[in-house]
Specification:
This protein has 78 residues and is mainly β. It has one domain. 0% of the residues lie in helices and 47% in strands. The protein has a five-stranded antiparallel sheet with strand order 3-8-7-6-5, with no helix packed on it. A four-stranded antiparallel sheet has the order 4-2-1-9, with no helix packed on it. A hairpin with a 5-residue loop joins strand 1 and strand 2. The two termini are 16 Å apart. Bound molecules: zinc ion. The site of zinc ion has 7 residues, from loops.
């Protein structure tokens, strides 16, 4: 499980169940297990500080690189 934070202000955004070892390029909505301070607005996911974290693409969020950092474990695909 990964915990995503804003790269600018370090606010906790959400918890994400990442599968595979790749970079976090998108976040599938069904695998977001907990929301913290992220705000959904006008098809974007925003941090309370105003930074745009991702764009709504239906079933997933397209993540803005450099707008977020994360910590925790990725789950290896079986
Ligand atoms: Zn922020």
């Amino acid at each position: 499980m990964l915990t995503l934070r804003c790269a600018k202000c370090k606010a906790k955004l959400w918890k994400y169940n990442k599968l595979g070892k790749g970079e976090v390029v998108r976040c599938h909505k069904e695998r977001i297990t907990k929301m913290y301070k992220a705000i959904e607005k006008d098809g974007k996911m925003l941090c309370p500080c105003g930074a745009v974290i991702g764009h709504d693409k239906g079933s997933h969020w397209n993540m803005v690189r450099k707008s977020f950092i994360y910590s925790g474990e990725k789950v290896s695909k079986l």
